[in-house]
Amino acid sequence: MISNEFLQQVVNAISLGAIYSLFALGYAMVFSILGVLNLAHSAVFMWGAFLGLITVTEIKLPLLLAFPVAMVGAGLIAVALDFLAFRPLRRRNAPRISQLIVSIGASALLVSLSQLTFGTDPRRFPFDILPSGAIQGLPFRVTLIQVIVLITALILMVLLNILVLRTRLGQAMRAVAFNQRTASLLGVNVSGIFASTFFIAGALAGIAGVLYGLTYNSILPFMGDQVALKGLTAIVLGGMGSIPGAVLGGFGVAGLERFSVAVGGSDYRDAVVFLILFLMLLVRPQGLIGQKEQTRA
Amino acid sequence: MLLRLDQVAAGYGAIEALHGISLKVERGQVVSLIGANGAGKSTTLNVISGLIKPARGAVYFEDRDISGWRADQITALGLVQVPEGRQVIATMTVEENLSLGAYRRRDRRQIGSDMDGVYERFPRLKERRSQKAGSLSGGEQQMLAVGRALMMRPKLLMLDEPSMGLAPLLVNEIFRIINAIKNSGTPILLVEQNARKALALADYAYVLERGVIAYEGKALDLRQDPKVIAAYLG
Ligand SMILES: Nc1ncnc2c1ncn2[C@@H]1O[C@H](COP(=O)(O)OP(=O)(O)OP(=O)(O)O)[C@@H](O)[C@H]1O
Ligand SMILES: [Mg+2]
Q1: What is the pLDDT of residues A248-292, one digit of tens each?
Q2: Listed range (A205-214, A265-274, B160-169, B225-234) with the worst mean pLDDT
Q3: Residue A157 contacts residue A20 (beta carbons within 8 Å)
Q4: N or C terminus of chain B: which is more exposed, having fewer CB within 10 Å?
Protein backbone atom coordinates (compact mmCIF):
# COMPACT_ATOMS: atom_id res chain seq x y z
CA MET A 1 0.00 0.00 0.00
CA ILE A 2 2.79 2.39 0.92
CA SER A 3 4.46 1.92 -2.43
CA ASN A 4 1.13 2.57 -4.14
CA GLU A 5 0.72 5.78 -2.19
CA PHE A 6 4.28 6.71 -3.08
CA LEU A 7 3.70 6.02 -6.78
CA GLN A 8 0.59 8.16 -6.62
CA GLN A 9 2.51 11.10 -5.17
CA VAL A 10 5.14 10.70 -7.89
CA VAL A 11 2.42 10.97 -10.52
CA ASN A 12 0.96 14.04 -8.85
CA ALA A 13 4.41 15.59 -8.50
CA ILE A 14 5.17 15.16 -12.19
CA SER A 15 1.98 16.90 -13.22
CA LEU A 16 2.39 19.71 -10.71
CA GLY A 17 6.09 19.96 -11.52
CA ALA A 18 5.26 20.54 -15.17
CA ILE A 19 3.23 23.62 -14.18
CA TYR A 20 5.90 24.92 -11.80
CA SER A 21 8.52 24.47 -14.50
CA LEU A 22 6.58 26.44 -17.09
CA PHE A 23 6.06 29.16 -14.55
CA ALA A 24 9.69 29.17 -13.35
CA LEU A 25 10.97 29.37 -16.94
CA GLY A 26 9.61 32.89 -17.19
CA TYR A 27 11.42 33.98 -14.05
CA ALA A 28 14.62 32.45 -15.39
CA MET A 29 14.37 34.01 -18.86
CA VAL A 30 13.72 37.51 -17.57
CA PHE A 31 16.38 37.14 -14.88
CA SER A 32 19.01 36.02 -17.35
CA ILE A 33 18.60 39.06 -19.59
CA LEU A 34 17.49 41.69 -17.08
CA GLY A 35 19.48 40.50 -14.10
CA VAL A 36 16.38 41.20 -12.04
CA LEU A 37 13.60 39.05 -10.65
CA ASN A 38 10.27 40.08 -12.04
CA LEU A 39 8.11 39.55 -8.96
CA ALA A 40 5.02 40.48 -10.96
CA HIS A 41 5.41 37.19 -12.83
CA SER A 42 2.96 35.44 -10.48
CA ALA A 43 0.35 38.13 -11.19
CA VAL A 44 0.80 37.51 -14.93
CA PHE A 45 0.22 33.81 -14.18
CA MET A 46 -3.05 34.69 -12.43
CA TRP A 47 -4.18 36.89 -15.32
CA GLY A 48 -3.43 34.05 -17.70
CA ALA A 49 -5.73 31.80 -15.68
CA PHE A 50 -8.55 34.37 -15.76
CA LEU A 51 -8.11 35.04 -19.49
CA GLY A 52 -8.32 31.31 -20.16
CA LEU A 53 -11.38 31.07 -17.94
CA ILE A 54 -13.35 33.90 -19.54
CA THR A 55 -12.50 32.59 -22.99
CA VAL A 56 -14.54 29.52 -22.03
CA THR A 57 -17.18 30.94 -19.68
CA GLU A 58 -17.86 34.39 -21.18
CA ILE A 59 -16.78 34.25 -24.81
CA LYS A 60 -18.00 30.63 -25.03
CA LEU A 61 -15.08 29.40 -27.06
CA PRO A 62 -13.83 25.81 -26.79
CA LEU A 63 -11.19 25.03 -24.15
CA LEU A 64 -8.58 24.43 -26.82
CA LEU A 65 -8.70 28.14 -27.67
CA ALA A 66 -8.33 29.16 -24.03
CA PHE A 67 -4.65 28.20 -24.20
CA PRO A 68 -3.57 30.50 -27.05
CA VAL A 69 -5.77 33.33 -25.75
CA ALA A 70 -4.20 33.08 -22.31
CA MET A 71 -0.71 32.90 -23.77
CA VAL A 72 -1.09 35.92 -26.02
CA GLY A 73 -2.96 37.92 -23.38
CA ALA A 74 -0.51 37.20 -20.58
CA GLY A 75 2.40 37.77 -22.96
CA LEU A 76 1.06 41.21 -23.83
CA ILE A 77 0.55 42.04 -20.16
CA ALA A 78 4.20 41.14 -19.53
CA VAL A 79 5.33 43.30 -22.47
CA ALA A 80 3.25 46.20 -21.13
CA LEU A 81 4.94 45.72 -17.78
CA ASP A 82 8.34 45.99 -19.43
CA PHE A 83 7.35 49.13 -21.36
CA LEU A 84 5.65 50.92 -18.49
CA ALA A 85 7.64 49.78 -15.47
CA PHE A 86 11.09 48.42 -16.35
CA ARG A 87 12.05 50.34 -19.45
CA PRO A 88 11.82 53.84 -17.91
CA LEU A 89 14.05 52.62 -15.07
CA ARG A 90 16.59 51.11 -17.50
CA ARG A 91 16.69 54.42 -19.37
CA ARG A 92 17.76 56.14 -16.17
CA ASN A 93 20.22 53.39 -15.26
CA ALA A 94 18.28 52.84 -12.06
CA PRO A 95 19.79 50.35 -9.61
CA ARG A 96 18.45 46.80 -9.73
CA ILE A 97 16.77 47.16 -6.37
CA SER A 98 14.45 49.82 -7.89
CA GLN A 99 13.46 47.38 -10.60
CA LEU A 100 12.74 44.70 -8.02
CA ILE A 101 10.61 47.08 -5.97
CA VAL A 102 8.73 48.28 -9.02
CA SER A 103 7.94 44.68 -9.92
CA ILE A 104 6.41 44.18 -6.46
CA GLY A 105 4.28 47.27 -6.98
CA ALA A 106 3.23 46.12 -10.42
CA SER A 107 2.23 42.79 -8.95
CA ALA A 108 0.00 44.46 -6.36
CA LEU A 109 -1.56 46.59 -9.09
CA LEU A 110 -2.31 43.61 -11.31
CA VAL A 111 -3.87 41.72 -8.39
CA SER A 112 -6.06 44.72 -7.49
CA LEU A 113 -7.19 45.11 -11.09
CA SER A 114 -8.16 41.48 -11.09
CA GLN A 115 -10.12 41.88 -7.85
CA LEU A 116 -11.97 44.84 -9.33
CA THR A 117 -12.75 42.92 -12.50
CA PHE A 118 -13.51 39.45 -11.21
CA GLY A 119 -14.28 39.88 -7.49
CA THR A 120 -12.71 37.78 -4.76
CA ASP A 121 -14.84 34.63 -4.95
CA PRO A 122 -13.23 31.67 -6.65
CA ARG A 123 -14.25 31.23 -10.30
CA ARG A 124 -14.44 27.84 -11.92
CA PHE A 125 -14.39 26.22 -15.32
CA PRO A 126 -17.62 24.32 -16.05
CA PHE A 127 -17.34 21.03 -14.17
CA ASP A 128 -17.92 18.95 -17.27
CA ILE A 129 -15.25 20.69 -19.32
CA LEU A 130 -12.96 17.69 -19.04
CA PRO A 131 -13.77 14.23 -17.72
CA SER A 132 -12.44 14.30 -14.18
CA GLY A 133 -12.37 10.55 -13.57
CA ALA A 134 -9.19 8.53 -13.58
CA ILE A 135 -7.93 6.87 -16.73
CA GLN A 136 -8.74 3.17 -16.43
CA GLY A 137 -6.29 0.29 -16.32
CA LEU A 138 -3.34 1.97 -14.58
CA PRO A 139 -1.87 1.07 -11.17
CA PHE A 140 -2.30 4.69 -10.07
CA ARG A 141 -4.83 7.47 -10.50
CA VAL A 142 -4.17 9.74 -13.47
CA THR A 143 -6.72 12.18 -14.77
CA LEU A 144 -7.00 13.51 -18.29
CA ILE A 145 -6.10 16.96 -16.96
CA GLN A 146 -2.81 15.67 -15.60
CA VAL A 147 -1.97 14.11 -18.96
CA ILE A 148 -2.83 17.33 -20.79
CA VAL A 149 -0.69 19.32 -18.35
CA LEU A 150 2.34 17.12 -18.85
CA ILE A 151 2.09 16.91 -22.65
CA THR A 152 1.52 20.65 -23.04
CA ALA A 153 4.43 21.47 -20.78
CA LEU A 154 6.80 19.08 -22.52
CA ILE A 155 5.90 20.42 -25.97
CA LEU A 156 6.44 24.00 -24.83
CA MET A 157 9.76 23.18 -23.21
CA VAL A 158 11.04 21.51 -26.36
CA LEU A 159 9.88 24.48 -28.45
CA LEU A 160 11.52 26.93 -26.08
CA ASN A 161 14.74 24.98 -26.22
CA ILE A 162 14.72 25.07 -30.02
CA LEU A 163 13.91 28.77 -29.95
CA VAL A 164 16.76 29.66 -27.63
CA LEU A 165 19.42 27.39 -29.11
CA ARG A 166 18.54 27.19 -32.79
CA THR A 167 16.88 30.39 -33.96
CA ARG A 168 18.09 33.86 -34.80
CA LEU A 169 15.90 35.32 -32.06
CA GLY A 170 17.34 32.91 -29.52
CA GLN A 171 20.86 33.79 -30.59
CA ALA A 172 20.11 37.47 -30.07
CA MET A 173 18.57 36.73 -26.68
CA ARG A 174 21.69 34.91 -25.59
CA ALA A 175 23.85 37.78 -26.85
CA VAL A 176 21.77 40.31 -24.88
CA ALA A 177 21.96 38.08 -21.79
CA PHE A 178 25.75 38.06 -22.12
CA ASN A 179 26.23 41.80 -22.64
CA GLN A 180 23.75 44.39 -23.88
CA ARG A 181 26.34 46.80 -25.29
CA THR A 182 28.13 44.08 -27.20
CA ALA A 183 24.83 42.80 -28.55
CA SER A 184 23.84 46.26 -29.76
CA LEU A 185 27.22 46.68 -31.50
CA LEU A 186 26.39 43.47 -33.38
CA GLY A 187 23.16 45.02 -34.63
CA VAL A 188 20.77 43.54 -32.07
CA ASN A 189 17.89 45.83 -31.10
CA VAL A 190 18.14 45.33 -27.36
CA SER A 191 14.74 46.85 -26.52
CA GLY A 192 13.14 44.51 -29.03
CA ILE A 193 14.80 41.53 -27.38
CA PHE A 194 13.54 42.67 -23.99
CA ALA A 195 10.02 42.86 -25.36
CA SER A 196 10.28 39.41 -26.98
CA THR A 197 11.66 37.88 -23.81
CA PHE A 198 8.93 39.39 -21.66
CA PHE A 199 6.33 38.20 -24.14
CA ILE A 200 7.56 34.61 -24.09
CA ALA A 201 7.95 34.60 -20.30
CA GLY A 202 4.44 36.01 -19.90
CA ALA A 203 2.97 33.52 -22.36
CA LEU A 204 4.50 30.62 -20.43
CA ALA A 205 3.14 32.03 -17.17
CA GLY A 206 -0.26 32.47 -18.80
CA ILE A 207 -0.59 28.89 -19.96
CA ALA A 208 0.78 27.68 -16.62
CA GLY A 209 -2.05 29.66 -15.01
CA VAL A 210 -4.70 27.97 -17.16
CA LEU A 211 -3.26 24.52 -16.46
CA TYR A 212 -3.13 25.27 -12.73
CA GLY A 213 -6.69 26.58 -12.85
CA LEU A 214 -7.87 23.42 -14.62
CA THR A 215 -6.02 21.19 -12.16
CA TYR A 216 -7.51 22.76 -9.01
CA ASN A 217 -10.54 24.31 -10.69
CA SER A 218 -10.40 27.38 -8.55
CA ILE A 219 -9.28 30.71 -9.99
CA LEU A 220 -8.72 33.66 -7.69
CA PRO A 221 -6.93 37.03 -7.81
CA PHE A 222 -4.56 35.73 -5.12
CA MET A 223 -3.76 32.43 -6.80
CA GLY A 224 -0.36 33.75 -7.87
CA ASP A 225 0.78 33.64 -4.24
CA GLN A 226 0.49 29.87 -4.33
CA VAL A 227 3.14 29.55 -7.03
CA ALA A 228 5.36 32.62 -6.50
CA LEU A 229 7.48 31.00 -3.82
CA LYS A 230 7.58 27.66 -5.66
CA GLY A 231 8.85 29.31 -8.82
CA LEU A 232 11.51 31.26 -6.96
CA THR A 233 12.68 28.12 -5.20
CA ALA A 234 12.75 26.30 -8.53
CA ILE A 235 15.11 28.81 -10.13
CA VAL A 236 17.30 28.94 -7.04
CA LEU A 237 17.52 25.13 -7.14
CA GLY A 238 18.26 25.22 -10.85
CA GLY A 239 20.77 28.06 -10.79
CA MET A 240 19.39 31.56 -11.40
CA GLY A 241 18.64 32.19 -15.03
CA SER A 242 19.42 28.69 -16.27
CA ILE A 243 16.66 27.37 -18.53
CA PRO A 244 17.20 23.62 -18.02
CA GLY A 245 17.77 24.45 -14.35
CA ALA A 246 14.35 26.06 -14.06
CA VAL A 247 12.71 22.93 -15.46
CA LEU A 248 14.58 20.61 -13.12
CA GLY A 249 13.93 22.98 -10.24
CA GLY A 250 10.20 23.03 -11.00
CA PHE A 251 9.97 19.26 -10.88
CA GLY A 252 12.23 19.19 -7.81
CA VAL A 253 10.01 21.60 -5.87
CA ALA A 254 6.87 19.69 -6.81
CA GLY A 255 8.53 16.47 -5.70
CA LEU A 256 9.47 17.96 -2.35
CA GLU A 257 6.02 19.36 -1.88
CA ARG A 258 4.22 16.09 -2.66
CA PHE A 259 6.70 14.14 -0.57
CA SER A 260 6.11 16.34 2.46
CA VAL A 261 2.36 15.99 1.98
CA ALA A 262 2.75 12.21 1.98
CA VAL A 263 4.92 12.23 5.08
CA GLY A 264 3.63 15.05 7.21
CA GLY A 265 0.31 16.20 5.82
CA SER A 266 -0.44 19.18 3.65
CA ASP A 267 0.05 21.78 6.39
CA TYR A 268 3.82 21.60 6.07
CA ARG A 269 4.36 21.69 2.34
CA ASP A 270 4.94 25.43 1.96
CA ALA A 271 7.15 25.47 5.06
CA VAL A 272 9.29 22.71 3.57
CA VAL A 273 9.64 24.58 0.28
CA PHE A 274 10.62 27.75 2.11
CA LEU A 275 13.15 25.87 4.21
CA ILE A 276 14.74 24.41 1.07
CA LEU A 277 14.90 27.87 -0.50
CA PHE A 278 16.61 29.23 2.60
CA LEU A 279 19.11 26.37 2.79
CA MET A 280 19.94 26.61 -0.91
CA LEU A 281 20.64 30.33 -0.64
CA LEU A 282 22.94 29.61 2.30
CA VAL A 283 24.78 26.61 0.96
CA ARG A 284 24.61 26.53 -2.83
CA PRO A 285 23.41 29.88 -4.17
CA GLN A 286 24.67 28.89 -7.63
CA GLY A 287 22.03 26.12 -7.75
CA LEU A 288 22.34 22.35 -7.71
CA ILE A 289 23.73 22.07 -11.23
CA GLY A 290 25.26 25.54 -11.48
CA GLN A 291 28.94 26.33 -11.31
CA LYS A 292 30.59 28.98 -9.23
CA GLU A 293 30.76 32.29 -11.08
CA GLN A 294 34.57 32.35 -11.37
CA THR A 295 34.86 28.79 -12.72
CA ARG A 296 32.38 29.44 -15.50
CA ALA A 297 34.13 29.40 -18.88
CA MET B 1 33.17 61.72 -47.14
CA LEU B 2 32.69 58.47 -45.26
CA LEU B 3 32.72 59.66 -41.66
CA ARG B 4 32.84 63.12 -40.17
CA LEU B 5 32.69 64.31 -36.58
CA ASP B 6 31.84 67.95 -36.18
CA GLN B 7 32.72 69.58 -32.83
CA VAL B 8 31.58 66.56 -30.83
CA ALA B 9 31.41 66.91 -27.05
CA ALA B 10 30.39 63.99 -24.87
CA GLY B 11 30.90 62.59 -21.42
CA TYR B 12 29.63 60.59 -18.50
CA GLY B 13 27.11 62.41 -16.34
CA ALA B 14 28.70 65.64 -15.16
CA ILE B 15 32.17 64.67 -16.46
CA GLU B 16 32.90 65.83 -19.99
CA ALA B 17 35.43 63.52 -21.68
CA LEU B 18 35.43 65.02 -25.19
CA HIS B 19 35.48 68.80 -25.55
CA GLY B 20 34.42 69.34 -29.13
CA ILE B 21 36.48 67.20 -31.48
CA SER B 22 36.34 67.13 -35.26
CA LEU B 23 37.73 64.39 -37.44
CA LYS B 24 37.21 62.77 -40.83
CA VAL B 25 37.68 59.44 -42.53
CA GLU B 26 37.61 59.32 -46.32
CA ARG B 27 36.80 56.31 -48.45
CA GLY B 28 39.68 53.87 -48.78
CA GLN B 29 41.62 55.47 -45.93
CA VAL B 30 43.12 54.09 -42.75
CA VAL B 31 42.91 56.74 -40.07
CA SER B 32 44.54 56.31 -36.72
CA LEU B 33 43.50 57.87 -33.44
CA ILE B 34 46.27 57.75 -30.86
CA GLY B 35 46.57 59.07 -27.34
CA ALA B 36 47.42 58.20 -23.75
CA ASN B 37 45.24 56.35 -21.26
CA GLY B 38 42.05 58.27 -20.57
CA ALA B 39 42.51 60.66 -23.50
CA GLY B 40 39.01 59.86 -24.79
CA LYS B 41 39.71 57.41 -27.64
CA SER B 42 37.13 54.82 -26.62
CA THR B 43 34.63 57.55 -25.83
CA THR B 44 35.07 58.83 -29.40
CA LEU B 45 34.36 55.40 -30.91
CA ASN B 46 31.39 54.89 -28.62
CA VAL B 47 29.89 58.21 -29.64
CA ILE B 48 30.29 57.21 -33.29
CA SER B 49 28.69 53.82 -32.57
CA GLY B 50 25.76 55.38 -30.73
CA LEU B 51 26.54 53.87 -27.33
CA ILE B 52 27.04 57.40 -25.97
CA LYS B 53 24.93 60.32 -27.17
CA PRO B 54 26.89 63.47 -28.06
CA ALA B 55 26.10 66.42 -25.80
CA ARG B 56 27.02 68.86 -28.60
CA GLY B 57 28.09 68.54 -32.21
CA ALA B 58 27.17 65.89 -34.74
CA VAL B 59 28.34 62.67 -36.37
CA TYR B 60 27.86 62.22 -40.11
CA PHE B 61 28.19 58.88 -41.89
CA GLU B 62 28.05 58.99 -45.68
CA ASP B 63 26.83 62.59 -45.27
CA ARG B 64 23.88 61.54 -43.12
CA ASP B 65 23.53 62.93 -39.60
CA ILE B 66 23.46 59.85 -37.36
CA SER B 67 23.82 61.60 -33.99
CA GLY B 68 21.22 60.17 -31.64
CA TRP B 69 20.67 56.94 -33.59
CA ARG B 70 20.60 53.67 -31.69
CA ALA B 71 23.74 51.53 -31.72
CA ASP B 72 22.09 48.65 -33.60
CA GLN B 73 20.84 51.03 -36.31
CA ILE B 74 24.30 52.51 -36.75
CA THR B 75 25.86 49.05 -36.94
CA ALA B 76 23.32 48.11 -39.59
CA LEU B 77 24.61 51.01 -41.73
CA GLY B 78 27.97 49.23 -41.90
CA LEU B 79 29.70 51.33 -39.25
CA VAL B 80 31.18 48.48 -37.27
CA GLN B 81 33.16 48.64 -34.02
CA VAL B 82 35.40 45.97 -32.50
CA PRO B 83 35.29 47.22 -28.92
CA GLU B 84 38.10 47.42 -26.41
CA GLY B 85 38.67 44.08 -24.67
CA ARG B 86 37.32 42.12 -27.69
CA GLN B 87 33.92 41.30 -26.14
CA VAL B 88 33.41 37.96 -27.79
CA ILE B 89 30.41 36.09 -26.38
CA ALA B 90 32.25 33.68 -24.10
CA THR B 91 29.29 31.34 -23.71
CA MET B 92 28.90 30.79 -27.46
CA THR B 93 31.09 28.79 -29.81
CA VAL B 94 33.47 30.40 -32.29
CA GLU B 95 31.06 29.63 -35.11
CA GLU B 96 28.06 31.04 -33.25
CA ASN B 97 30.00 34.24 -32.61
CA LEU B 98 30.78 34.54 -36.32
CA SER B 99 27.20 33.89 -37.35
CA LEU B 100 26.08 36.52 -34.85
CA GLY B 101 28.15 38.95 -36.92
CA ALA B 102 25.75 38.25 -39.77
CA TYR B 103 22.72 38.89 -37.53
CA ARG B 104 21.48 41.81 -39.61
CA ARG B 105 22.19 40.25 -43.00
CA ARG B 106 19.61 38.60 -45.21
CA ASP B 107 21.86 37.23 -47.97
CA ARG B 108 22.04 33.67 -46.63
CA ARG B 109 24.25 32.37 -49.41
CA GLN B 110 26.97 35.00 -49.15
CA ILE B 111 27.07 34.56 -45.37
CA GLY B 112 28.41 31.05 -45.80
CA SER B 113 31.11 32.12 -48.22
CA ASP B 114 32.05 35.06 -46.00
CA MET B 115 32.47 32.65 -43.12
CA ASP B 116 34.76 30.51 -45.25
CA GLY B 117 36.69 33.68 -46.02
CA VAL B 118 37.11 34.42 -42.32
CA TYR B 119 38.29 30.87 -41.68
CA GLU B 120 40.79 31.23 -44.53
CA ARG B 121 42.10 34.43 -43.00
CA PHE B 122 42.21 32.90 -39.50
CA PRO B 123 42.95 29.17 -39.80
CA ARG B 124 43.18 28.90 -36.02
CA LEU B 125 39.54 29.89 -35.69
CA LYS B 126 38.59 27.12 -38.08
CA GLU B 127 40.36 24.55 -35.91
CA ARG B 128 38.45 25.86 -32.91
CA ARG B 129 35.11 26.50 -34.61
CA SER B 130 33.04 24.43 -32.16
CA GLN B 131 34.96 25.52 -29.07
CA LYS B 132 33.45 28.05 -26.67
CA ALA B 133 34.86 31.54 -27.32
CA GLY B 134 35.63 31.90 -23.61
CA SER B 135 38.18 29.10 -23.85
CA LEU B 136 40.26 30.86 -26.54
CA SER B 137 43.52 32.67 -25.81
CA GLY B 138 43.59 36.47 -25.86
CA GLY B 139 45.06 36.57 -29.36
CA GLU B 140 42.52 34.10 -30.68
CA GLN B 141 39.69 36.08 -29.11
CA GLN B 142 40.95 39.21 -30.85
CA MET B 143 40.98 37.35 -34.16
CA LEU B 144 37.45 36.15 -33.48
CA ALA B 145 36.33 39.70 -32.68
CA VAL B 146 37.84 40.95 -35.95
CA GLY B 147 36.44 37.98 -37.87
CA ARG B 148 33.00 38.62 -36.43
CA ALA B 149 33.23 42.26 -37.48
CA LEU B 150 34.19 41.22 -41.03
CA MET B 151 31.02 39.07 -41.11
CA MET B 152 29.14 42.38 -40.86
CA ARG B 153 30.68 43.50 -44.17
CA PRO B 154 31.80 46.82 -42.68
CA LYS B 155 31.83 49.99 -44.74
CA LEU B 156 34.07 51.37 -42.01
CA LEU B 157 35.81 49.14 -39.47
CA MET B 158 36.63 50.75 -36.13
CA LEU B 159 39.16 48.89 -33.99
CA ASP B 160 39.67 49.87 -30.34
CA GLU B 161 43.20 48.91 -29.22
CA PRO B 162 43.33 45.55 -31.00
CA SER B 163 46.88 44.90 -29.75
CA MET B 164 46.09 45.54 -26.09
CA GLY B 165 47.38 42.89 -23.71
CA LEU B 166 48.94 40.72 -26.42
CA ALA B 167 52.48 39.30 -26.49
CA PRO B 168 54.83 41.05 -28.99
CA LEU B 169 54.65 38.24 -31.55
CA LEU B 170 50.88 38.38 -31.52
CA VAL B 171 50.91 42.16 -31.77
CA ASN B 172 52.85 41.79 -35.01
CA GLU B 173 50.35 39.23 -36.25
CA ILE B 174 47.37 41.47 -35.44
CA PHE B 175 48.97 44.36 -37.33
CA ARG B 176 49.65 42.05 -40.29
CA ILE B 177 45.94 41.19 -40.26
CA ILE B 178 44.90 44.85 -40.10
CA ASN B 179 47.24 45.56 -42.99
CA ALA B 180 45.63 42.76 -45.01
CA ILE B 181 42.16 44.16 -44.31
CA LYS B 182 43.39 47.59 -45.41
CA ASN B 183 44.74 46.09 -48.65
CA SER B 184 41.39 44.44 -49.32
CA GLY B 185 39.96 47.96 -49.48
CA THR B 186 38.05 48.28 -46.21
CA PRO B 187 38.45 51.71 -44.58
CA ILE B 188 39.63 51.53 -40.98
CA LEU B 189 39.54 53.86 -38.00
CA LEU B 190 42.24 52.47 -35.74
CA VAL B 191 42.50 53.43 -32.07
CA GLU B 192 45.88 52.48 -30.63
CA GLN B 193 48.33 53.20 -27.85
CA ASN B 194 51.05 51.57 -29.94
CA ALA B 195 51.60 54.81 -31.85
CA ARG B 196 54.63 53.59 -33.77
CA LYS B 197 52.81 50.71 -35.40
CA ALA B 198 49.58 52.64 -35.87
CA LEU B 199 51.34 55.50 -37.66
CA ALA B 200 53.24 53.05 -39.86
CA LEU B 201 49.95 51.65 -41.09
CA ALA B 202 47.76 54.74 -41.33
CA ASP B 203 47.28 57.31 -44.08
CA TYR B 204 46.18 60.03 -41.69
CA ALA B 205 46.24 60.37 -37.91
CA TYR B 206 44.82 62.33 -35.01
CA VAL B 207 46.44 62.68 -31.60
CA LEU B 208 43.96 63.02 -28.76
CA GLU B 209 45.03 64.64 -25.49
CA ARG B 210 42.58 64.98 -22.61
CA GLY B 211 39.52 65.21 -24.82
CA VAL B 212 40.87 67.54 -27.52
CA ILE B 213 42.68 66.90 -30.80
CA ALA B 214 46.23 68.09 -30.12
CA TYR B 215 47.79 67.20 -33.48
CA GLU B 216 46.60 65.89 -36.80
CA GLY B 217 48.14 65.28 -40.16
CA LYS B 218 49.39 62.75 -42.65
CA ALA B 219 50.79 59.78 -40.76
CA LEU B 220 54.12 60.24 -42.58
CA ASP B 221 54.37 63.84 -41.36
CA LEU B 222 53.39 63.07 -37.78
CA ARG B 223 56.12 60.44 -37.62
CA GLN B 224 58.65 63.24 -38.30
CA ASP B 225 57.09 65.77 -35.91
CA PRO B 226 59.49 66.34 -32.97
CA LYS B 227 56.64 66.96 -30.49
CA VAL B 228 54.85 63.78 -31.48
CA ILE B 229 58.12 61.87 -31.39
CA ALA B 230 58.90 63.18 -27.91
CA ALA B 231 55.46 62.38 -26.50
CA TYR B 232 54.42 59.19 -28.31
CA LEU B 233 57.34 57.65 -30.20
CA GLY B 234 60.19 58.22 -27.71
N1 LIG C 1 31.88 54.74 -17.82
C2 LIG C 1 32.56 55.85 -17.46
N3 LIG C 1 32.12 56.62 -16.45
C4 LIG C 1 32.77 57.75 -16.08
N5 LIG C 1 33.88 58.18 -16.68
C6 LIG C 1 34.39 57.46 -17.69
C7 LIG C 1 33.75 56.25 -18.14
N8 LIG C 1 34.47 55.75 -19.16
C9 LIG C 1 35.50 56.59 -19.34
N10 LIG C 1 35.45 57.62 -18.47
C11 LIG C 1 36.40 58.76 -18.40
O12 LIG C 1 36.40 59.42 -19.63
C13 LIG C 1 37.72 59.76 -20.02
C14 LIG C 1 38.04 59.16 -21.36
O15 LIG C 1 38.01 57.74 -21.26
P16 LIG C 1 38.24 56.78 -22.49
O17 LIG C 1 37.88 55.41 -22.05
O18 LIG C 1 37.54 57.32 -23.67
O19 LIG C 1 39.81 56.88 -22.69
P20 LIG C 1 40.75 56.06 -23.68
O21 LIG C 1 41.50 57.06 -24.44
O22 LIG C 1 39.98 55.05 -24.42
O23 LIG C 1 41.73 55.35 -22.64
P24 LIG C 1 42.40 53.90 -22.66
O25 LIG C 1 43.60 54.01 -23.53
O26 LIG C 1 42.78 53.68 -21.24
O27 LIG C 1 41.39 52.95 -23.14
C28 LIG C 1 38.62 59.27 -18.90
O29 LIG C 1 38.89 60.35 -18.05
C30 LIG C 1 37.81 58.25 -18.19
O31 LIG C 1 38.14 58.21 -16.82
MG1 LIG D 1 39.97 53.03 -24.43
Answers
A1: 999 999 999 988 887 777 777 788 888 888 888 888 777 776 654
A2: A265-274
A3: no
A4: C
In whole angstroms, what is the distance from residue B165 CA to residue B180 CA? 21
- Listed residue (A39, A46, A117) closest to A85, CA to CA: A39
Looking at per-residue pLDDT, the higher value among A276 and B72 belongs to B72
B90 inside 8 A of chain A by CB: yes
Cβ of B165 closer than 6 Å to ligand 1, yes or no, is no
Interface contact B99, partner A, CB < 8 A: yes
Element of type H or E holding B77: none
Domains, chain B, with CATH or none: 3-89+153-233 (3.40.50.300)
* Cα of A29 to nearest chain B Cα, Å: 16
A179 has a chain B CB within 8 A of its CB = yes
Pairing of strands B188-192, B30-35: parallel
Residue nearest (by alpha carbon) to ligand 1 atom 26: B37
Helix (H, G, I), strand (E, B) or coil at B43: helix
B77 to chain A: nearest residue by CA? A187
A185 residue type, one letter: L
DSSP A158-186: HHHHHHHHHSHHHHHHHHHHH-HHHHHHT
Is the CB of residue B41 below 6 angstroms from any atom belonging to ligand 1? yes
Q: How confident is the model at residue B155 (pLDDT cuts 50, 70, 90)?
A: very high
| Residues B184-204: tens digit of each pLDDT | 999 999 999 899 999 999 999
Interface of B with A in 127-146 (CB under 8 A): 132, 134-135
Longest dimension (CA), chain B: 52
A87 touches chain B (CB under 8 A): no
ipTM: 0.95
B87 CB neighbours in chain A (<8 A) are 179, 181-182, 185
Query: How far from A36 is each of A27, A99, A159, A277, B22, CA to CA, in Å?
Result: 9, 7, 24, 18, 40
pTM of the full predicted structure? Answer: 0.92
Burial of B108 (0-12, 13-18, 19+ CB in 10 A): exposed
